[in-house]
User: Fold this.
Amino acid sequence: MRKRIVLIAFTSIAVLSLFVVLYDQFKPKTNALARTATTTDNVIATSQSFSDVSNYFKTNPGTHVLFVRDSSSDSDYVVDNLLSPLAHEHDVRPTPNIVSVDMSETKDLSVTRLKSTLGIEKYPAFVLVTTNNEKNSFSVDSVIEYDKKKPFSVTDLRKWFFDNKLWTGPYGDN
Assistant:
């Protein structure tokens, strides 16, 4: 009788151990929402604080796409779930170089100043600006703002890039 109990116990342990090892070997390995340095580096060309943007424009004339963001979950959502899929949907990256403007340190900035400076009332937002070094100024050409109540989708963001002639890949419902 003891031999039978010991045999059943060892068999049960062996089957359970085999199950655990096989599950560990074949479990799904997804990290779809995990942020990595390469994810951010592939979609954001450079990062500037709000106070350094005018100096950045002086040293880098031309047209720029700004991603105005803070450290909120909405900003992370836009990068991870909207911008990253767009940047990686083709072999050659179809999105433009994007300059991240960090607003985390500028809590005292009024909506009026934000609207007069970048043409937006809230962030995260994408702003297309053109610099004019002769006049030492820049102009806001186009804006798309993220709103929790009515968020934009990957399709909306792709259309904004396309409408502003920033999309370099094939256009369609990819």
Q: What stands out?
A: Strands lie at 46-49, 63-69, 98-102, 125-132, 137-145. Residues 32-163 form a domain with the Glutaredoxin fold (CATH 3.40.30.10).
